[in-house]
Design a protein that fits this description.
Length: 144
Amino acid sequence: MEILKYTHSGLRWVVLALLIGAIINAIAGKSRTYEKKDKMLNLFAMVSLHIQLLLGLVLYFTSPRVKFFDGWMKDASFRFYGMEHILMMVIAIALVTIGHSKAKKQSESAKKFSIITLWYSIALLVILAAIPWPFREALGGKWF
């Protein structure tokens, strides 16, 4: 359980790096041709999010931080891990997947880059809002 928790937490940095890299690449690439390396970076960002989701789902069903009991919605920590975190992350993953799919269908490079920039950026904002940062006092100020 501890290994899974630390893997899920540590992989967040890989996911964020790939997502930010894909966004920066899309912003910088608007005046050039969309190449295989662009496609692969966008794909790796999306796949890393899906892997993170799978790890998160295992944690969701096994973690002591997710408990459903009478009044669990009144407890900020249980509400965050039981509903807010997973819901926002699934929305973010859906946004990245939709953006990736829409970009693939475009024939113009500039359109592909624009779509990736928009959808991946919105997803990044949702992810940043849903991460249990240590400064979130309602969660006890801890990473785990």
